[in-house]
Amino acid sequence: MSPISMYMDGNAALDLSCNTRPAFTVIRGGRQAASAPQQETRPSIAVVLAAVAVALMFVVFVAVGSSAMGAQDVALQDAIASADRMEVRVQPGDSLWSLAQEHAVDGLTSEQTSDLIASWNGLDGAMLQPGDTLLVPAA
Question: Residue 135 forms beta bridges with which residues?
Answer without folding.
Answer: 87
